[in-house]
Amino acid sequence: MVRLRQKFILLLVLFTLPGISLFAQSERKPEVFLGYSNLQAQGLPDRNNLTGIFGSDFFNNRTTLHGFDTEVSAFPSSIFGLTGNFSFNENSRSNNRFIGLKDSVKTDIFYFLGGPTFTVGHSSRLQPFVRFLAGGANTRFDTSSQLNLGFGNPVNNSFTTGTTNFAVAAGGGLDWRISNGLKLRVFQIDYTPIFLNDQSINALTRAGAIEPFTLNGQRMDNVRFSFGIVF
Question: What pLDDT band is residue 76 in, cutting at 50, 70 and 90?
């Protein structure tokens, strides 16, 4: 795992360093992206149960988390940029298991990444781009349950647990220039794996019981979909 991280970081540095000296030569202004984010996360205990057009194994083997995606890009040249990215996604659910028993679980995933971006057709109406980012991801679980039998005090049980691990994002998208200084990001798709250390956590099952849970495998093969505005 350590060697893998070192290779990713070395690759990121090799892509990034040549562009730093070009900042003074570029007239392209920095850009900010703000948008909606849909994260399909693998390896979480509460998976999707979808039918129809979204009822594929890709979606049903993952958990949907909604949130936002934001990034800032500076451009040493017209086609090469350096991007800092932050996103937050959340999945919440609560259930009344039976009379007197209520539980809830919230899953949050934060990404904080940076790296090179390459764009095509900066002055064109349609502007495709690709990028490779590396950094970290924090996965956090907030779980609680309450048992109220109608006499005595309710019995509450809650805990918070989380882990921070190395993560990358490899992908791209398409911007549509609406006017000078304003673009619509039509879509952005990133493969965003999280490289997990061996770790067991407590989780709340669908039956309302708290039990140990091991995050599946050494890697969460997540995919992030985003769209929004660039200015």
Answer: very high
Residue 198 neighbours by CB distance under 10 Å: 8
C-alpha to C-alpha distance for 196 and 202, rounded to whole angstroms = 16
Residue 202 near residue 160 (C-beta atoms within 8 A): no
- pLDDT digit string (tens) for 45-67? 778 888 887 788 888 889 999 99
Q: How far apart are CA 79 and CA 26, in angstroms?
A: 10
> Domain boundaries in the chain?
2-230
pTM of this structure? 0.79
Let me know: does 114 contact 121? Beta carbons within 8 Å. no
Phi-psi label, residue 121: left if phi above 0, alpha if psi -120 to 50, beta otherwise:
left
Q: What is the CATH code of the structural domain delimited by 2-230?
A: 2.40.160.20
